[in-house]
Amino acid sequence: MSLTKSELVEIFRKLVLIREFDLLAIELRKAKRIYGAVHPYVGEEAVAVGVCAALRPTDRITSTHRGHGHCIAKGADINRMMAELFGRVDGYCKGKGGSMHIADFAIGMLGANGIVAGGMPIACGAALAAQLEDAGKVTACFFGDGATGEGEFHETLNIASLWKLPLLFVCENNRYGAGNAVESVRAQADITLHAPAYGMPGIAVDGNDVLAVRDTAAEAAERARRGDGPTLIHCKTFRSLFHAMRDVPPPETRPDDLLAAWRGRDRDPITRLEDHLIGGGTVTTAELQQIRDAVKRDLDAAVAFAEASPYPDPNDLLVDMFAE
Amino acid sequence: MREITFAQALEEALIEEMERDERVITLATTRAPGLENKFGDKRVRFTPISEAAFTGIGLGAAGSGFRPVVHWGMVTFSFVAMDQIVNQASKIRYMFGGQADFPVTYRCTTGGGMQVAAQHSQSPYSMFMHLAGLKIILPSTPADAKGLLKSSIRDNNPVVFFECSRLASTTGPVPDGEHVVPIGVADVKRAGRDVTVVGLAYYVREALAVADTLAAEGISLEVVDPRTLVPMDADAIRASVRKTGRLVVVDEAPATCSAASEIVALVTEDAQTFRALRAPVQRVCAAPVPVPFSPPLEQAALPDRARITTAIRRVLA
Question: What CATH number does the domain containing A55 carry?
Answer without folding.
Answer: 3.40.50.970
